[in-house]
Design brief:
Layout (H helix, E strand, L loop, with lengths): L3 E5 L3 H12 L3 E6 L10 E4 L1 H9 L3 H7 L1 E3 L2 E4 L5 E4 L2 H8 L3 E5 H10 L6 E3 L2 E8 L3 E7 L5 E3 L1 E4 L6 H6 L7 E11 L10 E5 L3 E7 L5 E8 L9 H8 L7 H6 L7 E7 L8 E2 L2 E3 L2 H4 L8 H16 L5 H29 L8 H11 L4 H10 L13
Parallel strand pairs: 1-2, 1-12, 2-8, 5-14, 12-19
Antiparallel strand pairs: 3-7, 4-7, 5-6, 9-10, 10-11, 13-16, 13-17, 14-15, 15-16, 18-19
Helix pairs in contact: 1-5, 1-10, 2-3, 2-10, 4-13, 10-11
């Protein structure tokens, strides 16, 4: 009898884990509490490590075809002057891939399309995971939906993970980062002169990602306490950014009010003591939710999925494989999360009227290759070797 796994959560990390486990011969069931899977409404930038992880999962070619390489752009001031330019071609030469911008819905569709039919069960809430001896577990659902017993349970249920709370009740859980984000994809194409841009004001960032169809994802990140809401978020943003450089006002003008998403940014500021508890393994935001300032959240989840499959591939020692996964993933994700937090404090969150101009001057004076070296610290990752899969 083959090995079995239940993946809790059908986001990018959960689907990637299911694809990876399926490729090494495991029988996988994915459960998600939402009635309909729809990871739409925003875009994502995938650094080379995320793209290479998708290559290892067999969907990299599809992502490159659906996405747009980020070759031009950089960081600007609200008036439009450049602080740093991006050389996507040089980055591609260094790590084998540019950063790729893609709608989340497209990435989600490619991952779900790589799974056998009926793998994903929607409208299923996981109430608990009960150990069955030392090498099996039962997933209890609410409402009950039949026995879900497996050799492994993958907790990929996001930053608010109920499984993480049950497994580590003493952990403080996610905390507010001090920032909130509003984002959307434009309704129509917008004339853009670059693939990707960030603009830093005082305690605020506006950025965009261009897509292949001419539309773009934009995001606005602002210093704000948790829970601050706007009656009309898009109107508030149009007022806030009315005098910022082009194409910021044009992006907002090309957006429908009903498409704007608004979320406070939370993170797991206190690292978990382990990503493994018995036959439950944590992955993605459930394990290491981080701020988005390095664009590494989804990339780290994709790395998790690839490493988990690689360590379980061809071994009967599941517990030993999970221990190796934990040993490999926890230090890396902790370091990336710490770097993302630091980048936010020196980037979007910086608001002191004397310190912001100093930071801007230092960025302008930095050597041309400094931004590439900063990206390479996290993007230069090579997937672990696995056995060739059928048809490859």
């Amino acid at each position: 009898m083959g090995r079995t796994a239940v993946v809790v959560g059908a986001g990018i990390g959960g689907l990637a884990a299911a694809v990876g486990l399926g490729r090494i011969g495991w029988e996988v069931t994915v459960v998600d509490r939402t009635p309909v899977l729809a990871d739409a409404g925003a875009g994502i930038s995938l650094a080379a490590n995320g793209v290479h992880a998708l290559d290892a999962l067999g969907v990299g070619a599809g992502v490159r075809a659906a996405g747009r390489g980020q070759y031009t752009g950089g960081t600007r001031t609200p008036g439009g002057s450049w602080l740093a330019r991006m050389d996507g071609a040089a980055l591609e030469r260094a790590v084998g891939s540019p950063i790729v911008g893609i709608p989340r819905s497209a990435l989600h569709g490619l991952l779900s399309g790589a799974l056998p039919p009926d793998t994903v069960r929607t409208g299923v809430t996981v109430a608990a995971v009960t150990p069955l001896g030392r090498d099996r577990a039962r997933v209890e659902t609410d409402p009950p939906s039949g026995a879900l017993e497996a050799d492994l349970v993958v907790a990929a249920d996001g930053i608010g993970s109920r499984l993480r709370t049950a497994l580590f009740p003493g952990h403080p859980g996610p905390v507010h980062s001090g920032s909130t984000v509003l984002r959307a994809i434009t309704e129509r194409p917008v004339h853009l002169l670059s693939d990707f841009e960030l603009t830093w004001g005082r305690g605020v960032e506006f950025g965009h990602i261009a897509f292949t169809d001419g539309r773009a994802e934009w995001h606005a990140v602002l210093n704000a306490p948790a829970g601050v809401l706007h009656e009309d978020p898009l109107a508030a943003l149009r007022r806030r950014f009315a005098r910022w450089h082009s194409p910021v006002p044009e992006l907002l003008a090309a957006t429908r009010a009903e498409d704007v998403l608004h979320h406070d940014i939370a993170e797991l500021a206190t690292p978990l003591p382990s990503f493994v508890a018995g036959r439950v393994v944590l992955l993605g935001d459930a394990a290491h939710a981080m701020t988005p300032n390095l664009g590494q959240g989804a990339c780290q989840a994709l790395e998790d999925a690839v490493v988990l499959a690689a360590r379980l591939d061809g071994t009967a020692d599941i517990d030993g494989a999970l221990a190796r996964y934990d040993t490999e993933r926890r230090p890396r994700t902790t370091a990336v999360a710490r770097a993302a937090r630091r980048a936010g404090r020196m980037g979007q969150q910086l608001s002191h009227p004397l310190v912001v101009p100093l930071r801007n001057t230092l960025l302008r004076l930095a050597p041309s290759g400094a931004s590439i070296r900063a990206i390479l610290r996290h993007a230069a990752w090579t997937p672990p070797l696995t056995r060739p899969f059928a048809g490859e």
